[in-house]
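Fill in residues.
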């Protein structure tokens, strides 16, 4: 049980690190550049959502779901084993502080 929790924490740390290593300014849907602060805020929300999914739904589910965040709008994509698993991933994302809305593009295998 403790080993599984440690794997979740390490997975979340790896996701957070990878998210923060990206470019500091990226294009948004409107073609405007995000500020460094906006980028870091979105990267932080992305990492928190991945951690919430890993904790609430499971590490396997989190590894099959892609998370992208732009101005607090979270988009989930990828695959889930069941519609219940997909719904739980959405619910986990919605409870994260900083998430304005969640777009669910998860497909059931």
């Amino acid at each position: 049980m403790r080993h599984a929790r440690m794997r979740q924490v390490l997975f979340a740390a790896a996701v957070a690190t990878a998210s923060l290593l990206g470019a500091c300014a990226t294009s948004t849907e409107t073609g405007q550049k995000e500020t460094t602060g906006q980028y870091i805020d979105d990267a932080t929300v992305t990492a928190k959502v991945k951690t919430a999914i890993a904790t609430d739904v499971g590490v396997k589910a989190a590894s099959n779901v892609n998370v992208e965040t732009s101005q607090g709008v979270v988009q989930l994509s990828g695959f889930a084993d069941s519609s219940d698993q997909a719904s739980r991933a959405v619910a986990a994302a919605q409870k994260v502080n900083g998430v304005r809305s969640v777009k669910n593009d998860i497909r059931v295998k």
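The first strand starts at residue 65 and ends at 70.
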